[in-house]
Design brief:
FhuF 2Fe-2S C-terminal domain-containing protein, Transferase(Phosphotransferase), domain 1, alpha+beta, four-stranded mixed beta sheet, two-stranded antiparallel sheet
């Protein structure tokens, strides 16, 4: 069911999707293990942050936040949709997860996916795959972890309002820290309680969920 939804998303976007619709790949030379991003001295991670900063003419810390907004979204999306569709969550273990630079920013897949039920597995996936990257990005780019986790929290909320209807607040509550409490629903919309830092760039409009737009 999930892979069918992802394929429809890819078709609607002209093939530009940040996760392989089938989730599982046999990686060739265009793919890089996610573990490479954590390998000292973090050369590949720094390259991706620098590339993002150059693309948007952004300061280094803003480039780091925007890189994470992209990476975190595509890593989170399949778990959010799987939970909303039928409760079956695809978990990509860090040692089996790969990525490549693409028109979507990055595209993520795995050599093997474990299907589980419930939100405990989502929390474990965040702890094992996202937390080490969030920590590394925060330390190297001097951007707060709460800011980065806000992008992950939104990556649970956005697809459950735009792709498959789902109670994203209940999902975030069940997952708990570090993503619970970072999204606020207002009517049929939601707003972040942290900023992805996009609004700090010159001559841009705020994201629709930007905390600066949140009713006071």
């Amino acid at each position: 069911m999930l892979t069918e939804v992802l394929q429809r998303m890819a078709d609607a976007r002209g093939g530009v999707l940040g996760v392989e619709p089938g989730l599982v790949i046999e990686p060739d030379e265009t793919w890089t293990p996610v573990a490479e991003l954590l390998r000292e001295p973090h050369t590949r991670l720094d390259e991706l942050i620098d590339e993002t900063a150059r693309r948007w003419n952004a300061p280094h810390h803003v480039g780091a936040a925007l890189f994470w907004k992209t990476f975190g979204y595509w890593h989170t999306l399949p778990m959010a949709l799987g939970w909303a569709l039928d409760g079956r969550v695809p978990v990509m273990r860090p040692e089996e997860t790969w990525f490549k630079v693409s028109e979507a920013g990055v595209t993520i897949a795995a050599t093997r996916v474990t299907w589980t039920d419930g939100t405990d597995a989502i929390g474990e996936a965040l702890a094992r795959t996202q937390q080490p990257l969030v920590t590394a990005i925060s330390r190297r780019a001097r951007v707060g972890e709460r800011t980065l986790w806000g992008s992950t929290a939104e990556a649970f909320a956005e697809p459950l309002t735009s792709v498959v209807p789902g109670d994203y607040m209940e999902l975030l509550r069940r997952i708990g820290p570090p993503v619970d409490g970072l999204i606020e629903p207002v009517g049929d919309r939601y707003f972040r309680r942290t900023c992805c830092l996009w609004i700090t760039l010159p001559d841009v409009e705020p994201c629709g969920s930007c905390c600066v737009l949140r009713p006071r």
